Amino acid sequence: MAVNRVVITGVGAVSPYGIGADRLLAELFAGSSAVRNYPELATIGGMHSFVAARVPDIEQDARKIPRKHRRSMSGQSIYALLACREALAAAGLGEEICGSGRLGLAIGSTLGSVQTSEDFFRDFFKDQSLERMKSTTFFRLMNHSAASNVAQSLGVTGRVLAPAAACATGCLAVGLGYEQIAAGRTEMVLCGGSDEFHPLTIGTFDVMNAASREFNQQPEKTPRPFDRDRDGIVCGEGAGILLLESFDSARARGATVIAEIGGFATSSDPGSIANPDGSAMAACMGAALNDAGLDPSEIGYVNAHATATVQGDIAESEAIRELFGCDIAVSSLKGHMGHTMAASGSLELIATVGMLREKRLIPTLNLEHVDTACAPLNYLQDVAPAPEARAMMKNSFALGGVNSSIVIKEMEI
Amino acid sequence: MNEQEMIDLINNALAEEFELEPDDMTAEANLYEDLGLDSLDAVDMVVVLEQAFGFKIREDQAVREIRTLGDIYRFVAGKLQDQAEN
Fold first, then answer.
1. Residue A31: exposed, middle, or buried by beta-carbon count in 10 A (0-12, 13-18, 19+)?
2. What CATH number is attached to the domain comprising B73?
3. Mean of the per-residue pLDDT values of chain A
4. Which of A23, A147, A178, A348 could form a disulfide with A162 if both were Cys (CB 3.0 to 4.6 A apart)?
């Protein structure tokens, strides 16, 4: 049970659209696809999916990070840092707050930098020698590399956590941030997920026949959540960071509250490490609603995990119907920017916060014909006004059986 | 390789690795106080020099005495001299 109310006072995003939460929201509302064809993927033996949603060139911004910090960063650390800075600025906070002990981090990635692993072992296997290994290699490889690099760069002296749960990481990190503040352990947490692209990620889904491969020459047509012609995941990258803060702290400093975290739940689905189960999803969503103290009828929109796999979309749709009935408005943002993995939960939560504030809903891109195998729901195919929506839910369900759901709501004074 | 070519090779390799400004790279420049390197950079400096010149120096005690760019020039010149004589 929450002791302190927890609010969102800042957001930051590095997405397949580039840098900036405002840009992310504008592109999503505009229906822009960030998915592109990458011919180099076609050169990899056994790979069938040649599409991805990569972060565009941000080299200029990355070079502004002092070398002392940048040298131990791979892409996912850089994305996380840039997003954290944006979130702090949006919250009206200077970076000096990071050294006050009042602010912590909860930032996770699916893995440490896979590209760094590849580079190291490619060299190592030439002659089984460590003589060419740089001192900073390990700092890019650590499971908590993104969190640590952000902490070092911003001078964070509070607690630093690095939860990892694959596709649920971003949502889980926000949930942990919420629980820490709610329990009175800290006043503020910069939280979310960050991931960098590597062919291994696509390959992981490709070998399970869960990566999109039929739209390689029409990348903007995939992925297709809930659509009858969906053929799997498109992998993306990026970072989504939210600055969570106790309501008391936000009020004391006169901060603008963007939204309130209503509730959170995470639970395990031990039925399969790979295949989702609708009843486990429904249990997680129900627990989040219970934590928020809300009735299903009070949720105006569900931002689905829906990655455009055959099984996952059906299971989630059934879970949503079980809890909310057939009239609930639902969409997935994977159609726009693919599955940004560890970042997806927090990037999509940022977009959901934007929808709550703008009182209009972003539809599922590429949803042309709803799959009749999916449970009947109000699948959004166009931007929809939502003047009555005062609370929304965000789902993230991960390989490995880790489920998570977050409820956000308008601030009640 | 003459002395100037050796210095250029060292400077170029270090400038690229540590993003140093060529104007700052005088023989008297202290690696730590003037050029801003630290203990992690010192580890990587060994790798950079080994790759630039093809010798092994990580276990060489004299490496740990290096403080200035001039120290590096003298150290490398000595190693190259040793190689030539052996």
1. middle
2. 1.10.1200.10
3. 96
4. A147
CA distance to partner chain A, nearest, from residue B44 (Å): 6
Q: Which residues contact A204 (CB under 8 A, 6 or more apart)?
A: none
Inter-chain CB proximity A133 and B47 less than 8 Å: yes
CA–CA dist A283, B45 (Å, integer): 55
Residue A275: pLDDT band with limits 50, 70, 90: confident
How many domains is chain B partitioned into structurally? 1
Instruction: Select from B40, B48, B51, B56 the residue whose CB has the most chain A CBs within 10 Å, as the one to mutate to test that interface.
Output: B40
Which of A113, A160, A172, A104 has the alpha carbon at shortest distance from A345? A172
Query: In the predicted model, what is the mean pLDDT of residues A42-64?
Result: 96
Of A399 and B66, the structure prediction assigns the larger pLDDT to: B66
Query: Out of B36, B40, B50, whose CB is closest to A135?
Result: B40
Any residues with CB less than 8 A from the CB of A339 and at least 6 apart, and which? A167, A223, A233, A234, A235, A236, A307
Chain A: residue nearest B38 by CA?
A68
Question: CA of A138: which chain B residue's CA is closest?
Answer: B40
Quick one: pLDDT band at residue A411, thresholds 50, 70, 90? confident
Q: Which residue has the tokens 């990190």?
A: A173
Q: How confident is the model at residue A35 (pLDDT cuts 50, 70, 90)?
A: very high
**The model's pTM:** 0.96
Check A71 against B40: CB less than 8 A apart. Answer: yes
| Minimum CA–CA partner of B45 in chain A | A134
A145-178 confidence digits (pLDDT tens): 999 999 999 999 999 999 999 999 999 999 999 9
pLDDT at residue A1 in the model: 54
Domains of chain A in start order, with CATH, are: 6-252 (3.40.47.10), 262-409 (3.40.47.10)
Give the residue numbers spanning the domain of B75: 3-85
Q: Which of A68, A71, A132 sits opposite B47 (nearest CB)?
A: A132
